What we know:
This protein has one domain (42-187): YVTN repeat-like/Quinoprotein amine dehydrogenase (Methylamine Dehydrogenase, Chain H, 7 Propeller), CATH 2.130.10.10. Helices cover 4% and strands 39% of the residues. It is built from 1 helix and 14 strands, in the order αββββββββββββββ. A hairpin with a 2-residue loop joins strand 7 (105-109) and strand 8.
Amino acid sequence: MSAARERIQPVRTETLPAKTTPEQRYWRGFTNSQLVKEHNAVTHIAFDPNRPHNFAVTSSTRIQVFSSKTRKVVKNFTRFKDTVYSGEFRHDGKLLVAGDASGLVQIFDAQHPRSLLVTLQPSTHPTHVTKFHPSITTQLLTCSDDRVARLYDISSTEEPLMSFGEHQDYVRSGIFIPGSEFGGHRML
């Protein structure tokens, strides 16, 4: 027969209340995320500067405009034949511009995805950058893999206003910088 054994109780340490830092509380506030599958890589994301600040996601052969409140697709721009780059809103939010891998640049009415307003063919190489001037609503910057940046007036699209062809490599980014000494904008 075996003798009765006394049970050994494990020693437990006191648990302290969890201390969260302000940064942890900040990041835990982003629990309402949404994952959207895309067929190809996302090449550009741009936010509408006007309320409700929807955002355009450029991927594959389309631009999808998502609601900033519901994160659902509210508009689809699909009139592209090749990979699309740099879908950008104009500063008033009324126009959307994008370039594609064939060099074609298309300007749409941002409220009506089916209405294509202007088409430019600045290059036969991929046009990776398309941006509207921040204050002159009719000027558009395009930058392509042919090593040339061009500034267009979209009311007369035959020839660019200026061409900057002194680049040694592909032009994959461009921006207008405010605050020059004359109160205008510079292009970088």
